[in-house]
Structures are given as C-alpha cells and as structure tokens.
Design goal:
24 strands; 628 residues; single chain; antibiotic resistance
Length: 628
C-alpha cells in the first residue's frame, strides 16, 4: 500500500494541472441573449457574437422584415435562459413586442435563441425566425381610412357639411382621338361658361390616358343637369359620379364650415407622417380646425405578408372608433334665412345673429359680394354710429340719463376738422335735445360736444365692457374689435366717439355688443356648441344695460330704425350706423345696423351703401320679420 501511495498522489496532481490549463469560455448565455435583444430592437448586430451567420446578413434580414412596419417601436425581452454547460449549449426565450397606436392588443411574437460555445466563447446561432416571422415573409402595418368623413351639423343635429353626390365634368382622353381632344375641351368649357382656351391647353398638356377635370357640380344643381345633357354630344366628355363633402349650398356658411379637398403639396411636405399625396382633408374653416375629429383615425392591422404572392395572415388589428360629428351653434333655418336676406346685396356684406343668453352664433352669413371672404367674422371696419353705444355708456357712467340734455348742432369744428351729421338729418332734432333723441337720430355733434366727459381711455374701457376686443378663442380666424386707448390728436379722439378714426370691428363683434346690451354683461360668441368660452374682462351693471336698451328703443320709436316698430313679436331695439371711407366727395360709406329682439341680437353690415336706415334697415326688417 505504501508503494502505491506516491503513484496515486502524482495522478491527482496531474489531473489538477490539466484542468487549470483548459482555457476559460468567454461570455455567458445570458449576456448573448441580452445583446441579441438589443440588436433586434436597434438593428445593430455588431456587438453580438454569432455563429451560422454574420452581423451584416442579420441586419439586412431585419430591415427587410420590418421596413413595412414604419416607425413602430419594438421592445425585446429575455424571458429566460437554460444552459447545458457540459455540452456547451444553451437556449433563451425572447419576446418581441410592438406598440401599435390606439386602443387594442400589442403585437407579440416569441422566438427561441439557440446558443453554443464556439472558438472559446458563447455565441448565438442566427436564424430568420428570431425576427418573429418565418423566412419568406415580412411584417407589414396596414392602415384603413374611415369610409367617410363625419358631418358638421347644426345645433339640432341637422347635417350642414356632409357627403353629397356630385358630378365631375371633364375630358377623358382615352375616349377621344388626340387631335379632337382640344376641340372637345373647348366645347365643354363653352357649355359650362368657362375659359375654353385655358381648359383646352390643360387637356393638351395632360397624359394620353388622363381624365382632365373642368368643374364639379352637385347633382342637385340645375346647372349640373344642363351640363350633363351637353356632355352627351361632345366626344370624350364625361360626367363622373362621385361624392364630395359640401354644405347645403355653395355659399351656405362657407367661410365658417370650410372646404374639403386633396391635401396640398405643402401640407405633405410639412407633415409627411400625417399626410400622403391623394389624402382628402379639411383645407379651411372648421373642416381644417377639427380635422382629426372629422376625419377620424385609421384602423390598423399588422399582417405576416408574403411579398411574392401577396398572401397575408392577420396577426393583430386595431379598429378605430368612427369619426365624430362636429356640432355647431348654427340654426340651419336662421342661417338659410340670413343667406336669403343677403342674396341680392352686391357689395361685400354680412349678417350675424347671436343668442345673448348663451353667446351661441345662430347665423353667420356672408353675401355674394364677399366672394368667399369671411366678412362676418374676420372683417375689420369702422363701426360708425353703432359704436355710439360705447360713448353713451361713458355718459351714463358720468351721471347722465337718456333724458339728459345734450347739444346737437349742424356742424362742429374740432382742431380745424369739420364734423357733420348725416345728410338729411332732421332739423327738429337739432339744438338742446334729450340724449335719447340724439341717439335715435344719430347726432354726431351731440356726442362730440360731450368729448370732455368721454376720455379716450374710458371710451376704450366702455367698449371692452360691451365685449369689444375680448378674447374669443374662436377655432377659425375672427376679429373681436379694437379701440385705441390713446388718441394721436383731438380730431382722432372726436372721431372715435362716433365709431370712426382707429375704431374697428367685425360684424360679429357688433352683434356681440348688441348681445352684451341685451344680457347686461359682456357676451363672448361661440360657433361650436360645446366650446368653452373664456370669461370676458370688464363689467356692465344692470342699470347701465337698461339705460342703453332705452336708447336703442328710441332709435325704433322715433329715429332711423322706425321700420322695425311694427315687427311681430317682442319690441325691437336697434342702432343704425354709417362710417365714411375713401377720398371721394361726397365720401363713400360703410353702413350698419344692430338690433335686439328678445333673446336675439343681430348685426347687418354692407360695405358700401347709403345709410344704415335706408340700406340695411329693410334687410334687418326682412330678417326679423321672417325669423319671428
């Protein structure tokens, strides 16, 4: 036994020496799995030790498999690792999760990562299946736009802007020989009353298979039906059935409702993730301001797609909620009435009707002379004598009453400038007269004579208390008015008292002034029913408002608003106004009238007319009579 002992001891030492000399294996299965998870997220495989593949191949396969997913964020998690150290093999379970926008399930795929020891280190075996999709397939995110745009509706849910059937008229160059196409284009343009040569040039420049649109008519339009008959006799001419989002008529609240059409190149360039060429979107007005609500979000689906055959397998789907209608404050009947009242007015014009108790704009019409411009909301004009309500408010605050005496003269010179009353001012309303008579007949000199009682800053404060210059936070361009707090000269200060000089307002602003008088507080108008309006600055006491209403009633009972005295319904209160502009002699005039009847405040404006009483008075009479 003793002879064997040294031999046994030598054998153990030799074994220990051999074990100590074996090279250590670099890394670990956990490290390889975590590196692979990062690489799958980022597409950078350079830091992952690989067998059965190289980083460049892995990166290329990942790019091909995921490029149709766009920018969907990917998170890869190592769920667990099992290893057989003796065999030098291991396996990890990876979970790939894509976060898909909207409500619904995420896209989750699981894949095994096989690892082994190669050349003294742990390395991962690259397989296409690690991408969560078999070889020969790619992952693709597909969007499906809502089938139709949501409506803009009136306060009672009546559709205003909605999808309506139309005809697209044009030349289909596949249906006419090239030499005849221009001749057909001229004939179609002549039938539509448009420029024949301009359209013929457009047709000539288009491709051989193009449909070159000339004009679109709604199918309820008589002109469209007449043009359909003309199309039948013109080679290559066509009337294509289509649908388009339109209002009840071409002009119906158009600047407010806005237009819908193909996205512009500028919009695509500015926001390529949101818009693509050919998208139909809101281009102006409420259609643009509430684009996301009205257009809605697309439904999303992720599929495993075979690019060669086009076959796909649905993996996950997010069905988007339908687009939501936008409810305006408009009353469809009153809006149509306002459109009708202005239909024959040639200069730019506007009619705005507000419900004082809520600030809801019930009608917001622009006449045909405005040619699509938002005169009603965004116009900036001197309001003339309708602004005398602000001047009168300062006098009431100075202690005057509607019965207080003021001096009305034929002319009054201020700092070398001669102020006059309107042509035809009644002689019986000259001299010492009650303030109510001065307001009823719109005596300019009476208020200017009181200019020492009406400092410019107090006039501006009174205007603010009547809602002028308030913050409206309208979703579309709007002008609430502006009144200077300082005057550049004594003449300018005097002009401000009668709503000229630097005083400016929109028809909507003057309707809000009338509404503020009716309600006894500053009224902020709104055009969207659930719109929260800011609390206006300024104060107006019930006594002050009652005094202003008395002055406005006098305009109807003894002044320029007498045509409204017998209107049906509650008593009408009003104020007329003219504002001179230009350099003509005699000067041209903007003409105004604002009125109150119950819970209705109305402003009507015509850019050029005779007097508020003669030009606008009949329009106001027509509107209030038919609105009763």
């Amino acid at each position: 036994m003793r002879a064997l002992t040294p031999a046994v001891g030598l054998s153990l030492v030799g074994a220990l020496a051999l074990t100590a000399c074996e090279p250590a294996v670099e890394g670990s299965p956990q490290q390889v799995a975590e590196a692979m998870a990062v690489a799958l997220e980022t597409g950078q495989f350079g830091a992952v030790p690989l067998v059965d593949g190289i980083p460049a191949d892995a990166q290329a396969q990942r790019q091909e498999a995921y490029e149709r997913l766009g920018e969907l964020p990917l998170d890869v998690e190592v769920l667990g690792v099992t290893a057989d150290e003796d065999e030098g093999r291991a396996e990890a379970d990876l979970r790939l999760t894509w976060d898909i926008p909207g409500d619904g399930d995420e896209l989750v795929r699981e894949a095994p990562l096989r690892m082994r020891v190669a050349e003294g280190e742990w390395a991962g075996a690259w397989e296409h299946a690690l991408l969560g999709v078999p070889a020969g397939q790619v992952l693709a995110l597909e969007e499906t736009a809502p089938s139709r745009r949501a409506d803009i509706v009136d306060r009672d849910g009546e559709p205003l802007a909605t999808t309506r059937p139309v005809w697209h008229f044009g030349i289909d160059k596949t249906r006419v020989e090239a030499p005849e196409a221009e001749q057909s284009a001229r004939a179609l343009a002549q039938a539509a009353g448009l420029d024949p040569e301009g359209y013929a040039a457009s047709v000539a420049a288009a491709g051989p298979e193009a449909f070159v649109r000339l004009i679109t008519y709604r199918q309820s339009d008589g002109d469209g039906h007449r043009l359909v008959e003309s199309v039948e006799g013109i080679p290559g001419a066509a009337a294509l059935d289509a649908e388009q989002v339109l209002g009840p008529s071409r002009t119906f609240a158009q600047p407010l409702l806005g237009t819908v059409g193909e996205v512009t190149a500028e919009m695509v360039e500015e926001d390529p993730e949101r818009y693509a060429p050919g998208d139909v979107v809101g281009l102006s007005g409420l259609q643009a301001a509430f684009e996301d609500q009205l257009r809605g979000q697309p439904s999303l689906r992720v599929v495993a797609l075979d690019p060669d055959t086009g076959r796909d397998e649905l993996l996950v789907e997010h069905a988007a909620p339908p687009p939501e209608p936008l409810t305006t404050t408009l009353d469809a009947d009153l809006q149509q009435l306002a459109e009708d009242v202005l239909s024959d007015v040639e200069p730019p014009s506007a009619l705005v009707a507000i419900r004082p108790s809520s600030g809801d704009v019930l009608a917001l019409a622009n006449g045909p002379g405005s040619e699509g411009v938002s005169t009603a909301l965004a116009g900036q004009y001197p309001p003339g004598s309708t602004f005398k309500l602000a001047s009168a408010l300062v006098l009431l605050r100075q202690g005057l009453t509607p019965e207080s005496t003021v001096q009305c003269e034929e002319t009054l010179v201020v700092d070398g400038y001669e102020f006059k009353n309107v042509t035809g001012y009644p002689e019986l309303a000259l001299g010492e007269i009650p303030l109510s008579t001065a307001m009823a007949n719109s005596c300019n000199t009476a208020l200017i004579n009181e200019r020492d009682r009406i400092p410019v800053d107090e006039l501006a404060a009174a205007a603010r208390d009547l809602g002028m210059g308030a913050v409206w936070e309208m979703p579309v361009t709007a002008f609430s008015g502006s009144v200077p707090t300082e005057a550049g000269s004594e003449t300018e200060a005097a002009a401000s008292l009668i709503g000229q000089g630097s005083v400016l307002a929109s028809p909507a602003a003057m309707a809000a002034v009338a509404a503020s008088v009716a309600e006894g507080r500053p009224v902020v108008p709104r055009v969207v029913l659930d719109q929260e309006v800011p609390e206006p600055e300024g104060t107006l006491t019930p006594e002050e408002a009652e005094g202003l209403r008395t002055l406005m009633r006098a305009v109807v009972t003894e002044g320029g608003g007498s045509m409204l005295a017998d209107n049906p319904g509650e008593p009408v209160l009003a104020k007329t106004g003219t504002a001179e502009f230009g350099t003509d002699d005699p000067p041209r005039t903007h003409v105004w009238m604002i009125a109150l009847q119950g819970d209705l405040a109305v402003a009507i404006f015509v850019e050029e007319g005779e007097f508020g009483s003669t030009t606008v008075g009949p329009l106001m009479d027509d509107f209030l009579t038919r609105a009763s």
